[in-house]
């Protein structure tokens, strides 16, 4: 009943189901780095952010334009033949740094938008790598389940043959059938996780849901190229979100200068022409003594200057509001700097803990699990154990492999977290 050599030969495959690092490359396969590059080029959210930079460039162009002159036309017509026509032009001078204030705010706005695009690119890179790690982990779990399912289906055929030959109890066939069905159900869930992760990754990369995607690579990563001190220094100097905070502080300071300029005096030049056709219902004498109506056309040219005198309103309220906003922006820069340092430290702490956990799995868990399954198999082969023992040990082996996948993903995620925190590639 327990000495079936054919079943033992099938069960030996249970100790060799760990996915190998090398496999044939499928058509259309892409690496994680290639997906990141595609996401940076095609992600719709990033495209929208870049268009906002173009919009800011348009506002910068508008800020540099001077106010338009104003043409004024007027006329009067009396019940008599008298009439009056006036033409005037007003030209605002836009004095005392008003244009410079507008341009300064617009320049800082476009710089802020550019920094925001860089920050969104940083987030997209991390999101793509995180989701790619999730997909790679799901693919690894699916591969383990597929190989186990194949081994157990073959074992079910062998056990069924032995039961019909009377060499094994019918209970063994039932136990093996339950295990096959359980693995088949697990495979369906694992397959759905692969598909969902793939759809989410396509969204980040700007791909259509029905576009083919075959991700190649492994969860294992190369050692970090940065230590904690270098990563912290690079994050403080280069991280885009910190640059965004600094740009917003600079824009707030530019807004103060703009509001101060709006509170200073300004002037408008006015020039005009007046044509007046005027007379009386009387006749007068000319120099030669003849009579003619008292009626004539008069032409007037004039000019003037209108000056805004900031006596009652120096724009004090807006200046005070902009000054307070500047101080708030400076405090946000300080907070952002502290946050960056904390995130880098936390990312390295998580990475170091994940590496230690992975090393324990590699040295003291997976090897022991393989040996345990091999011992149980050999005991079953020698008739000293039952198929139920083999199945139970196999389930523990699956748990260990899934745990190892989780450990690999934790290290992968922690490395991506360091890249996100440092604002640059950490490998």
Description:
The protein is of the alpha+beta class and 427 residues long. The chain has a single domain, classed as Outer membrane efflux proteins (OEP) (Up-down Bundle), CATH 1.20.1600. It has a four-stranded antiparallel β-sheet with strand order 2-3-5-6, with no helix packed on it. Strands 1-4 form a two-stranded parallel sheet. A hairpin with a 5-residue loop joins β5 and β6. α3 packs antiparallel against α4. It starts with a helix and ends in a 5-residue tail after the last helix.
Characteristic terms for this protein:
alpha+beta; 427 residues; 6 strands; two-stranded parallel sheet; Outer membrane efflux proteins (OEP); 9 helices; elongated; single chain; 4-stranded antiparallel sheet; 65% helix
Helix-strand layout with pairing:
Blueprint (H helix, E strand, L loop, with lengths): L4 H7 L17 E2 L1 H11 L1 H20 L6 E8 L5 E10 L5 H67 L5 H36 L8 E2 L12 H11 L1 H23 L3 E20 L5 E18 L7 H66 L5 H36 L5
Parallel strand pairs: 1-4
Antiparallel strand pairs: 2-3, 3-5, 5-6
Helix pairs in contact: 1-4, 1-8, 2-4, 3-4, 4-5, 4-7, 4-9, 6-8, 7-8, 8-9
Distance between the termini: 55 Å
Name of the top-level CATH class: Mainly Alpha
Remind me, CATH topology? Outer membrane efflux proteins (OEP)
Q: For the largest beta sheet, what order do the strands appear in spatially?
A: 2-3-5-6
Residue share in helices? 55-70%
- Rg over C-alpha atoms, rounded to the nearest angstrom: 41 Å
Average of the residue pLDDT scores: 86
Individual helix count? 9
**Beta-sheet strand percentage?**
5-15%
Q: List the domain count as a whole number.
A: 1
Secondary-structure element order, N to C: HEHHEEHHEHHEEHH
Low-pLDDT runs: 21-27
**Tertiary shape:** elongated
| Topology, number of strands | 6
> What's the main sheet like?
4 strands, antiparallel
- At CATH's second level, what is the architecture? Up-down Bundle
The CATH superfamily appears as Outer membrane efflux proteins (OEP)
Class per helix and strand makeup: alpha+beta
